[in-house]
């Protein structure tokens, strides 16, 4: 599992992502991807890659407007590479490394949401990362039924199972 991190936004000058947080993202990714793809025909030796970009509010607002028509910053956007007509479809024959797509997070929106909801900002950041990853794997929340399934998955993957586990 490989996470390519991009922090090249000038708006992020006062935000720092720790090695610990990156390791937690990697652990969550390994757990979720192995669980979600266990019944697929994907070779277990294929290396999975995710691109994670952190943006400031201005650039996130631009992306949100361009891709969703909403002229305000958002906490997370996902751009899956393996989707056809809204359905996740990993190709049968893959060797080497495969990228699932891009997750773009605005840590400032995440921090503000955490403040408003009375949550820990790091826990909210993990939730948003899992949310973005589930989108890469074909989950959505466009209908109440889809939302119930996706929210249940998020909760399942974020339950603490013991010290050091997420």
Automatic annotation (TrEMBL):
UniProt-annotated location(s): Cytoplasm
Q: What EC designation does it have? A: 3.1.-.-
Report the gene name.
ybeY
Cite the PANTHER family for this sequence. ENDORIBONUCLEASE YBEY, CHLOROPLASTIC (PTHR46986)
GO terms, molecular function:
metalloendopeptidase activity; RNA endonuclease activity; zinc ion binding
Name under which the protein is recorded: Endoribonuclease YbeY
Cofactor notes = Binds 1 zinc ion.
Q: Which GO terms describe its biological process?
A: rRNA processing
Biological function: Single strand-specific metallo-endoribonuclease involved in late-stage 70S ribosome quality control and in maturation of the 3' terminus of the 16S rRNA.
Q: Which organism is it from?
A: Acetomicrobium hydrogeniformans
Q: By its UniProt entry, which NCBIfam families does this protein fall under? A: rRNA maturation RNase YbeY
Pfam families with a match to the protein in the record: YbeY (PF02130)
Name the family: Belongs to the endoribonuclease YbeY family.
Print the keywords alphabetically.
Cytoplasm, Endonuclease, Hydrolase, Metal-binding, Nuclease, Ribosome biogenesis, rRNA processing, Zinc
């Amino acid at each position: 599992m490989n996470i390519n991190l991009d922090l090249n936004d000038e708006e992020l000058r006062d935000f720092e992502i720790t090695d610990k947080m990156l390791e937690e993202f990697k652990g969550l990714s390994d757990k979720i991807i192995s669980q979600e793809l266990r019944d697929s025909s994907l070779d277990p030796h294929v290396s999975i890659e995710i691109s994670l970009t952190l943006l400031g509010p201005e650039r996130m607002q631009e992306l949100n407007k361009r891709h969703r028509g909403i002229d305000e910053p958002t906490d997370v956007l996902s751009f899956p590479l393996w989707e056809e007509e809204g359905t996740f479809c990993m190709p049968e024959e893959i060797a080497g490394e495969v990228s699932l797509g891009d997750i773009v997070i605005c840590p400032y929106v995440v921090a503000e949401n955490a403040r408003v909801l009375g949550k820990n900002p790091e826990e909210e950041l993990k939730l948003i990362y899992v949310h973005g990853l589930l989108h890469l794997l074909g989950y959505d929340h466009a209908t109440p039924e889809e939302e119930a399934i996706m929210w249940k998955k998020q909760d399942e993957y974020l339950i603490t199972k013991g010290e050091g586990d997420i």
